[in-house]
Amino acid sequence: MSSAPDTVALVTTLAPRAKARPVIVQVLRNPVGAVCLVYIALVVVVGVFASMIAPMNPNATDLSMTNAPLFTDGYLLGGDSSGRDVLSRLIYGVRETLIGCVLVLGVSLILGVVAGLIAGYYRGTVERVTDFISDAIMTLPGIAFLIALYASVGPNMPLAMMVFGVIVAPTFFRLVRAVVVTVRGELYVDAAKVVGLSDVRIVGRHVLWAVRGPVVIHSAGILAAGIGIQAGLAFIGLGDPSVPSWGIILQESFQDIYRNPAGVIWPALIISVTILSFVLLGNVLRDVLQASGSAHTLRPARRRALVRQAKESPAEESVVSDDVVLSIRGLRMGYPDGPDSVHEVLHGVDLDLHRGEIHGLVGESGSGKSQIAFSILGILPAEAVPLGGSIVTGGVDVLRDDAGLRQVRGRRIGYIPQEPMSNLDPSFTVGDQLVYGLRAARKMSKTAARDRVRALLERVGITDADRVMTLYPHEISGGMAQRVLICGAIASDPDVIIADEPTTALDVTVQAEVLELLRELSLERGLAMVLVTHNLGVVADLCQSVSVMRDGEIVERGSVEKILSAPENPYTQELLTSSKSVELMEVGK
Amino acid sequence: MLLYIVKHLARAVGVFLTVTFATFVVMYGNGAGVARATLGMNASAQDVQRRMADLGLDRPLFVQYFDWLGGLFTGDLGRSYYTGQSVAGALGVRVPVTMSLIIVTLVLTVIISVFLGVAAAYYRGWVDRTVQVVAGLGAAIPSFIVAVVLVLVFAVNNPILPATGYVRPTDSVSGWLASITLPVISILIGTLGAAQIRGSVIDVLSRDFVRTLRARGISERAVVFRHVLRSASGPGIIAFGLLVVAMFGGTIFVEQVFALPGMGQLLNQSAQAGDVPMVMGCVLVTTIVVLVVNLIADLSNALLNPKARTR
């Protein structure tokens, strides 16, 4: 087929691209990575050429050198309890370590990766069977099993390490299977199947490419564990004493610890350093292979400086009349987009909310509506950086006064969230979380709080309040959950409610009921509300005044009648037109 | 919920039979080898034959396995080939030593891991990095290396704590504490589950309901310790179940270093001597404990989740 090369090229362009620089170069550019890699390379060279490098025969005894100190007559690291050269023994021990590493990694990689590829690619029965085997092996008390093995085969390091390879193979299996299942579902493998590439080529070309990162990272950890187990088994006496290995050397020196305390230091050090270099190399590889450029964090010092600057900047004085319950002036908020720079998302917002007023905050998603709502309550994500302005309610500037914010939150200002189901704690009953929240805001007895919550639940339209209070969030409907959340917001009798798209996640019929409830509550209690919404119909239905937001700024504000009938700003006009055409489309259905 | 328990119980029994049978085959598969090991390398073929008949090793492997399995119910797990001591009796003396190590280590692990994990997840920044590095390095260094260093520092160079031996808590509580302090630290350093706790706390902290609880005026301490920790405890308990398995591995090495007469030491000595019934007994106890701990972890996880509980 002449078209094959083209489709392969298409598929390849759809697959994630490799980084421009080879992984090895990136690892070497990292100081920790470079040190670890050089150390490991050194260990490998020493192990391969042990017989040429070691100054002595590792098993040659010289009784005059028993427990000799450092640098005695060519024994650079001194002698052991039998008068053998410690350095030469450690150098020969590298060989045993290398053989162990190769066996553990070889066996676990081949078993785990092959089984993982097959199970993840074909799924079904194959996956169930391999899954059961993997689970059974993982339940096996691995080390006890390795020791039990000694009882039937005696000291046999290569066999023990291969068995350990089998014991850890499920970790590779799970890793690879998970990656394969994800990759398989993605576009580029589907595309490859459509153009008729064989299974082997798909696995080779795309799936293996996707699993290589996690596998390389995990291999470093497996090697570290293998070295530890190998040395540990020899240390507790399951090694072959005639072959010098790190574990045997540690065991012999430990038995002599009271006569020659320093003897344990060298073997303990070389085992630890080698294990650590693999672990640290694994961390560096993770950073290099799984680098995520999305999350930016600000340097702590820079954050402190910005926050101090925002708090110290003088709040804009304004004449605020008595019936203003919430006053925002020049609010600026940003998010880090690098270690030292902040991207501003609110560019100086002013807003006054009067007693009993329902004020709509409209705009498309990303315009900053929710940022304002969250700022008022101090519930922005931890990364958010206040850059200036003030939010005053009840004489407290919640941006500057953290203690004041805690006094205001829940007591003076209530919050109605957007998604009812995800905003209830799934681990507590409806009654428990409402009563606990109320008692956190207002000092009252448990019974009094319970009675009040029950009465309010009935007020928001829940007929069997007693039963609902004993239910868990997963047992109630979305509409009922939103009523529960409204009850949670008004329970402590606040003056202001911040409602963030309170009806978006609800069915149309329930939406109308909830809006009606909010209107009644506002009239009944003189509640002021900031209603965040993208729906101009909701604004027309419920609000007295409205602010239109775009790109972090309020572009137009005024009474609902004025904005809806005679908008001045071109963006508001556009918003109105598009919302009308959406309504027409819905009517037309 | 009942169905859930039955299903998990059935799976545990299945894994138990698989694991013990696999071990049994490895141990007794070569009956002549087992018999010869008890006689020495110079034994004649007839001696080995007679010995196999004496020990019942000439029977089919399946028959031997079911015979051994039946012993579970009568409490008769056979006798040591060398000392003639009953396996069940030896385990009765050894297991409490190991369990006292593991229980103390587990309690400390849970307390320290929750504290470090929550701190790392809540404060992030340098606290997070420090906790991750400490827990990561602790998990990487084998327990026997930590044990050797502790002996060198606290028993040889500065004789503060005993380096060997075990004192039963019934004899002297302070003596018991002194005898297990270094062993417990050696295991503990490798089994801090702070990383798992950190991960699940970070996950829960990012959920919507946490924001709503804060907006309701609930204090930060109550949000974290009453609400967030409750939701994060499910994955945490599963992680601790796996750590108990790791602790059993750790005790084998640590009991050797500190000459503690626990089950790990018994397993090691019996394996080196070729005392197969003793080895089988130790594997049995380890497997049962591992399965029971994982079962308890699975069930508590389900109990903490109202969705699973009310089903």
SSE layout and pairing:
The complex is a heterodimer of chains A (589) and B (311).
Chain A lengths: L3 H11 L8 H7 L1 H18 L1 H4 L32 H37 L1 H16 L2 H12 L3 H29 L1 H8 L4 H40 L7 H10 L9 H25 L10 H13 L11 E13 L5 E13 L3 E5 L6 H9 L7 E9 L2 E2 L4 H7 L4 E4 L13 H12 L4 H14 L5 H5 L8 H13 L5 E5 L7 H18 L2 E5 L3 H7 L2 E6 L2 E7 H6 L4 H19 L1
Parallel strand pairs in A: 3-8, 3-9, 6-7, 7-8
Antiparallel strand pairs in A: 1-2, 1-4, 4-5, 9-10
Helix pairs in contact in A: 1-9, 3-5, 3-12, 5-6, 5-8, 5-10, 6-8, 7-8, 8-10, 9-10, 10-11, 10-12, 11-12, 16-17, 17-19, 19-20
Chain B lengths: L1 H27 L2 H9 L5 H11 L5 H14 L12 H37 L1 H16 L2 H15 L15 H18 L3 H12 L2 H8 L4 H38 L5 H11 L2 H29 L1 H4 L2
Helix pairs in contact in B: 1-13, 2-3, 5-6, 5-8, 5-9, 5-11, 5-13, 7-8, 7-11, 8-11, 9-11, 11-12, 11-13, 12-13
Give a nutshell description of this structure.
With 589 residues, chain A is of the alpha/beta class.
Kindly describe this structure:
The complex is a heterodimer of chains A (589) and B (311). Helices cover 58% and strands 12% of the residues of chain A. Chain A contains 23 helices and 10 strands. Chain A has helices spanning 4-14, 23-29, 31-48, 50-53, 86-122, 124-139, 142-153, 157-185, 187-194, 199-238, 246-255, 265-289, 300-312, 369-377, 402-408, 430-441, 446-459, 465-469, 478-490, 508-525, 536-542, 560-565, 570-588, and strands spanning 324-336, 342-354, 358-362, 385-393, 396-397, 413-416, 496-500, 528-532, 545-550, 553-559. In chain A, strand 1 and strand 2 (342-354) form a beta hairpin. In chain A, helix 5 (86-122) packs antiparallel against helix 6 and helix 10 packs parallel to helix 11. Chain A is elongated. Chain A starts with a helix and ends with a helix. Chain B has 311 residues and is an all-alpha fold. The radius of gyration of chain B is 24 Å and the shape is globular. In chain B, helix 1 (2-28) packs antiparallel against helix 13, helix 5 (87-123) packs antiparallel against helix 6 (125-140) and helix 11 (220-257) runs parallel beside helix 12. Chain B is 80% helix and 0% strand. Chain B starts with a helix and ends with a helix. Chain B has 2 domains: 20-74, no CATH class; 95-310, Orthogonal Bundle (MetI-like fold), CATH 1.10.3720.10. Chain B has 14 helices and no strands. Chains A and B meet through helix 6, helix 7, helix 10, helix 12 and strand 6 of A and helix 1, helix 6, helix 7, helix 10 and helix 11 of B.
